[in-house]
């Protein structure tokens, strides 16, 4: 890193005055150090001063404090028979460019921030450093920066598309894959524009592209000796699709292997050695039988009305049934194929004789009795008893 100085070029400008305005700004008053200027057309020197004018420039901050430069520049009168130029304005190429409002070193710093972070993030970082610049300013300055068009294409060239507006309009991006830099942007995605660029910039030995046929056609026509390869993303994408197509038909076997591996890991981690057990999965016939049993059970549960009629015929005469939620000490809860009912008795029951869980009525409707104390009357119930 070279030695840093207060000014970019001490031989070009001289500090006349340094002012402090408030607590958040510094002002440097500068003037040119040369005695004359050079005509930009005929390159002759002129020293006759015509007038003075001031330029205001922004410079790099000092410890986060913005710095403003007031630069006094001269105009010269130039008289020459061979040149038609009459007024020559003094130029300071090491300090600021023509019509610029920032010093050259500040512009370079903003360009580096924009290249690294972009517009919005670069603007936030610049504000923290004491540089006042919006995200639009950073991007505009980067667009206006002169880009040198390379005469030859890089040895390893990458071609892909980029979106002006996603789903609507696309262009073509060309990159140097060895250096990892963008070398050019084409406004459209077509084989003609890509072919024209490749013919204008020969020298590509390897062309990495996507699966688009237009890029393949352009590379074949403009660079027939170059080796065309698919880019990394498409290689990984195609490999993952092929691997998925091979493994999906065997997902059940993979699940069994994963289960065996998990059980083996648990057995190895346990302190007590366990005998390896063989895992026997149900066969196709056994799974079909289980499904048939479930279907028959569902059909059987659907015949609630028939079961309720059979149960009503078995209930003793004089017994009344009420909803299960509105029972009293003279009611015994029971279930009829998923329906909750209560059978009324003639006498109140002892709290100890009421079952904690309601009895379940079986299909054969055998009469069982609920446990009761000595003073209570036995109560009939249709079912297997208390469960």
**Which percent band covers the strand fraction?**
25-35%
Q: Mean pLDDT across all residues, rounded?
A: 75
Principal-axis shape: elongated
Structural class: alpha+beta
- Radius of gyration from the CA trace? 46 Å
Query: How many β-strand runs?
Result: 17
Query: What's the story with the biggest beta sheet?
Result: 5 strands, mixed
**Total count of domains:** 4
- Count of discrete alpha- or pi-helical segments spanning 4 or more residues: 9
Describe this structure in words.
The protein has nine helices and 17 strands. Strands 1, 2, 5, 6 and 7 form a five-stranded mixed β-sheet that branches. A five-stranded mixed β-sheet has the order 10-9-8-11-12. Residues 322-387 have low confidence and may be disordered. It folds into four domains: 13-101, no CATH class; 107-144; 156-234, Ribonuclease H-like superfamily/Ribonuclease H (Nucleotidyltransferase, domain 5, 2-Layer Sandwich); 305-382, no CATH class. It is an alpha+beta fold.
């Amino acid at each position: 890193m070279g030695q840093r100085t207060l000014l970019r070029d001490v031989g070009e400008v001289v500090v006349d005055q340094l002012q402090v305005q408030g607590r958040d700004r510094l002002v440097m008053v500068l003037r040119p150090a040369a005695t004359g200027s050079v005509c930009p057309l005929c390159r002759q020197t002129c020293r006759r001063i015509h007038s003075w004018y001031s330029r205001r420039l922004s410079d790099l901050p000092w410890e986060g404090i913005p710095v403003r430069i007031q630069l006094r520049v001269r105009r010269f009168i130039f008289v020459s028979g061979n040149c038609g130029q009459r007024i020559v304005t003094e130029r300071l190429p090491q300090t600021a460019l023509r019509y610029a409002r920032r010093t050259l070193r500040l512009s370079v710093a903003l360009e580096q921030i924009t290249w690294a972070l972009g517009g919005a993030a670069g603007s936030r970082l610049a504000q923290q450093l004491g540089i006042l610049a919006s995200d639009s300013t950073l991007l505009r300055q980067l667009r206006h920066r002169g880009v040198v068009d390379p005469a030859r294409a890089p040895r390893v060239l990458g071609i892909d598309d980029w979106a002006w507006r996603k789903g609507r309009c696309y262009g073509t991006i060309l990159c140097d894959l060895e250096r990892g830099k963008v070398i050019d942007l084409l406004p459209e995605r077509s084989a003609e524009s890509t072919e024209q660029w490749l013919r204008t910039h020969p020298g590509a030995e390897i062309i990495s592209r996507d699966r688009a046929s237009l890029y393949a056609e352009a590379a074949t026509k403009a660079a027939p000796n170059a080796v065309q390869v698919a880019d990394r993303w498409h290689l990984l994408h195609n490999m993952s699709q092929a691997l998925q197509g091979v493994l999906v038909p065997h997902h059940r076997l993979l699940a069994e292997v994963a289960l065996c591996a998990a059980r083996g890991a648990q057995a190895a981690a346990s302190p007590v050695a366990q005998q390896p057990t063989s895992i026997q999965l149900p066969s196709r016939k056994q799974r079909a039988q289980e499904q048939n049993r479930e279907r028959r059970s569902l059909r059987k549960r659907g015949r609630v009305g028939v079961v309720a009629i059979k149960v009503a015929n078995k209930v003793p005469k004089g017994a009344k049934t009420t909803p299960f939620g509105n029972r009293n000490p003279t009611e015994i809860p029971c279930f009829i194929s998923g329906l909750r009912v209560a059978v009324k008795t003639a006498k109140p029951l002892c709290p100890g004789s009421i079952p904690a869980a309601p009895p379940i009525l079986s299909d054969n409707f055998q009469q069982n009795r609920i446990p009761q104390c000595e003073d209570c009357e036995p109560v009939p119930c249709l079912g297997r008893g208390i469960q």
